[in-house]
Amino acid sequence: MSDRMPCKSDLSDERWALIEPVITAWKAQHPSVSGHAGRYGMREIVNALLYQSRTGCQWDYLPHDLPPRGAVYYYFAKWRDDGTDQVIHDLLRWLVRESKGRLADPSLVVLDTQSLHAAAGVPEDTTGLDAAKKCQAASVAWPLMYWAW
Predict the structure, then answer these.
(1) CB count, 10 Å around CB of 122?
(2) What are the Insertion element IS402-like domain coordinates in residue numbering (predicted)?
(3) pLDDT digits (tens, 9 = 90+) for 59-96
(4) Which of 21, 118, 128, 145 lies 20 to 30 A from 90 at CA?
């Protein structure tokens, strides 16, 4: 850990232990062209990414005690482009879900428009697509489809 004051968005030791192997493997597969190991610790890079994500600040406004924008954005862009960010996200999501006694992967919910019409009380004969079959209850079901997703 660094000498800086921790932020609320910083990784806990448990979360860092979970994603450190992924980042170490990524670093091994992507060695620096110049051969240097990097000036900033990877945990601090991840902490800066989490800070930016949580606060929504512009890259140039990252706090001075975190790595600079260029270093942080470099990893953000690389991990976004090759899917490493999604792997890290999935690991952290699984940790949170399991700590709450839930399955690591959420179960899939599928809703179709017929189910929504039935839930809104629309009669079967009025659920057609043409304008002559529409009724007031069918227009009530429409906003429900947006919220279902």
Answers:
(1) 21
(2) 11-88
(3) 999 999 999 999 999 999 999 999 999 999 888 888 88
(4) 145
pLDDT recorded at residue 96: 84
46 contacts 23 by C-beta, under 8 angstroms: yes
CA distance 81 to 34: 22
Tokens linked to 107: 């179960």
Q: Which pTM does this prediction carry? A: 0.65
Residue with tokens 């919910």: 109
DSSP for 87-110? HHHHHHHHHHHHHTT--SSPPP--
Q: What share of the chain is helix, strand, coil (3-state, %, to 5)?
A: 60, 0, 40
In the block, tokens 């004969």 appear at: 125
Query: What are the residue ranges of helices labelled H in the chain?
Result: 13-29, 42-55, 69-82, 84-99, 113-120, 136-148
Radius of gyration of the chain (CA): 23
Ordered by start, the domain boundaries in the chain are 13-99, 113-148
Residue 143 has pLDDT above 70, yes or no: no
